Amino acid sequence: MSIDKEAIQELENLKKKISETAGLPDQLREKLFLIVQRLERMANLGHYAQEFDTEATYIETVTSIPWDKRTEDHLDLQKTKELMDKTHYGMSYVKERIQEYLATLILLKQRGRDAIANSPIILMAGLQGVGKTTLAISMAKALGREFIRISMGGIGSTLELRGRNKSTPSAEPGQIVKALMKSKVRNPLILLDEIDKASGEMGLRSDIMAVLLEILDPNQNSEFRDHYVDYPIDLSEVLFVCSANTLGTLSTALMDRMEIIKMPSYTDGEKLIIARDFILPKAIETAGLNPGELDIDANIWPSIIRPFGYDSGIRSLGRTLSSICRKVAKEIVEGKTQKVVLTQENLKYYLPQ
């Protein structure tokens, strides 16, 4: 039988990866080499089977996990405050709570104790569009950590978190391992976004809450076992942050591990400043406009903030301003005008219908 030369070369590359993967546990490294030896026998006999692709993909995945790579934390309260002030107007209570949380990390680290293991998990609870995700991003930037967001709204099975065994047709690692691979470090900040929306069925939700407890609890997550990897993975250095719209669907055991920060809704006065100073400049730039090509009468901001008479939230406000800017851009491209001044008289035309 002819030897599959391409397969032999691929196996040589896999052996090199196994040897060069820093921090790979010895027991797992030995397991991977045994898999390669079995595949080499198949290749030398000229045999090629589905098992070859399955095992090769498994080795590629396991060696892509950051077993020994990490970033150094930059624990600076002043920098954290500056970043949060830059991305969020007001919310002094929320910012103060986050600074208190980071202060405990600094103190624990300075005194030689495990900062993450001794700190609760932050759970930001509030309506959509109040800035939960961007606050988590600000925390990651302040700490100098890689940021990864996992949308829990689409999690309908514990296997999506824990992975599927490599012997199954749909084998793949779970979202947690994928997040580590994407971040390329073992200590990113991972946002578990909208955990209250994970699986709408009561039985499944209970199972997912149990897996989340294992992922978040430092007494358990140092040996988190993903079904695909089939080897304990240490999550104790990961800084998990959670967000939720409501708290009613979360288990009591999970809530006990949480430091709940309630995110207040913005007042109309705060929305005016956010819209004028934060959202509008970005919307103008995104639409390709130059500063000065759109001017908004100060008296009509209340009508923009509540175009239909009800509180539409920050995201809807952003969509409204983006729509106005695109309409202005269209008129400029068509040569109808060089500048638009938005007034009470023409506002209705520019607002999205």
Key terms for this structure?
3 domains, 353 residues, Rossmann fold, alpha/beta, Helicase, Ruva Protein, domain 3, 14 helices, 9 strands, 10% strand, single chain, two-stranded antiparallel sheet, five-stranded parallel beta sheet
Biggest sheet, in brief? Answer: 5 strands, parallel
Helix content: 40-55%
Number of helices: 14
How many discrete domains?
A: 3
How far the N terminus sits from the C terminus, by CA atoms, comes to 71 Å
- In the predicted model, the low-confidence regions spanning at least 5 consecutive residues are none
Q: Report mean pLDDT, rounded to a whole number.
A: 85
Walk across the major sheet and give the strand order: 2-3-6-1-7
How does this model look, in words?
The mean pLDDT is 85. The chain is α/β, with parallel strands linked by helices. Helix 1 packs parallel to helix 3 (50-64) and helix 11 (268-286) runs parallel beside helix 13 (313-333). The protein has helices at residues 5-20, 26-44, 50-64, 77-87, 92-110, 132-143, 159-162, 175-183, 202-216, 252-255, 268-286, 301-305, 313-333, 347-350; strands at residues 121-125, 147-151, 189-193, 224-225, 232-233, 239-244, 258-262, 294-296, 340-342. The chain has three domains: 5-64; 77-262, Rossmann fold, CATH 3.40.50; 268-350, Orthogonal Bundle (Helicase, Ruva Protein, domain 3), CATH 1.10.8.60. A five-stranded parallel β-sheet has the order 2-3-6-1-7, sandwiched between helices. The protein has a two-stranded antiparallel ribbon with strand order 4-5. Strands 8-9 form a two-stranded parallel ribbon.
